[in-house]
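thought: fold this chain, then report.
action: predict
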Amino acid sequence: MINIGELIFAMSALAYLMAVITGIFSYKKQTLSKWVNIFSLASAVLITFDMILLVYYQVIHDFHYAYVYGHTSTDLAPAYLV
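observation:
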């Protein structure tokens, strides 16, 4: 089964890597600078979505994920889960 959180994180890392590579090549060509912004924004949006997904997993107590299993409890109030 594919873990959607890991997939989103990998896509974000790839977008960030593309932003870095494009940024290096746009040093002499200013036409590539818009792609740096696009890849950076895509990376930021994906990381934000991934964090929202992790908080969602914590709130619903989805213990299939190691982080949720190790850092949450059903005894905690919802305010302490976020």
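thought: worth noting. Helices lie at 4-25, 33-59, 66-71, 78-81.
final: tokens above.
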